[in-house]
Design goal:
Layout (H helix, E strand, L loop, with lengths): L1 H19 L2 H11 L4 H9 L9 H12 L3 H4 L2 E13 L2 E10 L3 E9 L6 E8 L2 H8 L12
Antiparallel strand pairs: 1-2, 2-3, 3-4
Helix pairs in contact: 2-3, 3-4
Length: about 150
């Protein structure tokens, strides 16, 4: 009986530790914390990669910028939607999300890397060029005009 309980607990912990190191969970953890404490969400995200201690000033500037996304500046936060997920290999993945505010959408792009057994942040970017890109995609030179009708 004790052996069965031990095996059950061991299996449970193995599933838990795997889930905590998945790339999807890293992103979901970020978005769960972001509306409550954006600085903490960014710290936890960058905390997955020990090499980011070399860019502490840049991280602090990013946290300062994001903390400025107040209701007075960008309006109410309404959540996020997936734009795309691209997996380049078993160890490198890109996530792109549209983050919704009253004033405008923003894009959060995460690149995650798994050098060994845990996912780490490789790159995190925020931009507001979504409208420019969708307008560009609608240009005639992107449309196949040679199609037969």
């Amino acid at each position: 009986m004790k052996k069965a309980i031990f095996i059950s607990v061991a299996i449970l912990f193995s599933f838990t530790s795997f889930a905590q190191s998945s790339s999807d969970e890293l992103i979901m953890k970020f978005f769960k914390e972001f509306p409550n404490n954006s600085g903490k969400a960014i710290d936890e995200l960058y905390g997955t990669n020990p090499w980011t201690t070399r860019i502490k000033d840049a991280i602090d500037n990013l946290k300062k910028e994001v903390s400025g996304y107040t209701v007075d500046y960008v309006g109410k936060y309404y959540g996020y939607e997936t734009i795309i997920k691209k997996q380049f290999s078993e160890s490198f993945v890109l996530y792109s999300y549209m983050v919704k505010y009253d004033r405008q959408p923003m894009r959060f792009t995460f690149e995650l890397y798994k050098p060994n057994d845990k996912w780490t942040l490789f790159s995190f970017k925020i931009d507001t060029e979504l409208d420019d890109e969708i307008e560009q995609a609608a240009k005639l030179y992107y449309i196949n005009l040679d199609k037969e009708k």
